[in-house]
Write the C-alpha cells for this entry.
Amino acid sequence: MSNTKLIAQTVNLKDDPELIAAYKQHHQNVWPEVIASLKAIGCHSMNIFLLGRRMFMVCQVDQDFEPSRDFPKYLDLDPKCQEWEDLMTTFQEPVPEAKEGDKWAPMEEVFDMEWF
C-alpha cells in the first residue's frame, strides 16, 4: 500500500482575461518559500490545469493528509506564504459547488485504473 494519495480540488478564476493571464504568469515564477512550505506539510507534488476559467488541482500528498486541516499549515511556515495566498486570492473565486467558506472545493474521485 502506498504511503501517499492523490487529492483534487477546483476553483474558478475571475472572468477577466487580463487577470487570468497574470495568474498564469505568477505560476511560472512561484516563490521558493511557497514550494518549500507545501513540501514541508506533506504535499509531494502539485499540478494545476486550466480550462476557460476553471482551475483543477491534483496533488500527491501523505496518506494521512487532510486538505482542510493541512493546507492552512503552510501559511504559518513562512510569511511569504501568506503573502502569496493573499495575492492568489485576488484572482480566484469559489465554484458554485463549493461549500460556504471554502475557496478550493474538493473533488470526488470516480475512477482509477488501479481499481481494476
User: Anything to note?
Assistant: The longest strand covers residues 4-13. Helices lie at 17-26, 32-40, 67-70, 79-89. The mean pLDDT is 96.
